[in-house]
Amino acid sequence: MPVSISILAPIRAGAFMLLIGTLALSACLSSHSISHYLPKAEASAKPHRAAHGARECLVRAMYFESIRSSREGLLAVGTVVMNRVESPKFPNTVCGVVGQKRQFAPGVLTRKVRGDRQELADLADAILAGKRHLGVKKAKFFHTAGLTFPYTNMHYVLEAGGNAFYEKRSRKKRRS
Questions:
Q1: Is the overall model pTM greater than 0.90, yes or no?
Q2: Short-list 127, 156, 128, CA closest to 142
Q3: For residue 52, what pLDDT band results from cuts at 50, 70 and 90?
Q4: Confidence check: pLDDT of 19 > 80
Q5: C-alpha closest to that of 139 among 159, 109, 117, 118
């Protein structure tokens, strides 16, 4: 019998300390609400991408990336976002794709969207329901139209809304 008591002694001591800690915490909390102990959110805090839904993230990507010059350009940007969502090489959510560092306009998820958002919201809903710009094909990249780069793996498929859309091709695909 003494052997079994010595085995349980550390367990009982641990449980006792846990009970004491819990009682002490509840005594502290009884005089203050738990919010007293939590950090306060700043009123001017910028929204984090988790605060946005897929529709809002898509609206923001189209708004800040297409130069808002044409519906075709908006749709093309939205199509690239969805192409990335569907690719295993990118995050699998719209907000994950749009929020990737150095992929979209700085502040795309935090800057203020100005003006009428209804057209953007309607187009985002259509894209989320499956609408795509056929000219974009499987392109997952774009840059401002008119810029040139020395890379040979950029296969251009469309220019719309002030952007040039392209697929990156491997050496094998470039030869064929």
A1: no
A2: 156
A3: confident
A4: no
A5: 159
Phi, psi of 139 (to 5 degrees): -60, 140
d(CA 96, CA 87): 12
Instruction: List Cβ neighbours of 140 (8 Å cut-off, separation of 6 or more).
Output: 80, 83, 84, 87, 89, 90, 167, 168
52: left (phi over 0), alpha (psi -120 to 50) or beta: beta
CA 53, 55, 56, 62 torsion: positive or negative? positive
Contact criterion met (CB below 8 Å) for 77 and 162: no
> Residue 174 has what pLDDT?
52
CATH fold for the domain made of 49-175? Arc Repressor Mutant, subunit A (1.10.10)
Query: Which pLDDT belongs to residue 66?
Result: 86
Nearest-angstrom CA–CA distance, 47 and 60: 13
Convert the chain into a string of H (helix), E (strand) and C (coil): CHHHHHHHHHHHHHHHHHHHHHHHHHHHHHHCCHHHHCCCCCCCCCCCHHHCCHHHHHHHHHHHHCCCCCHHHHHHHHHHHHHHHCCCCCCCCHHHHHCCCCCCCCCCCCCCCCCCCHHHHHHHHHHHCCCCCHHHCCCCEEEECCCCCCCCCEEEEEEECCEEEEEECCHHHHHC
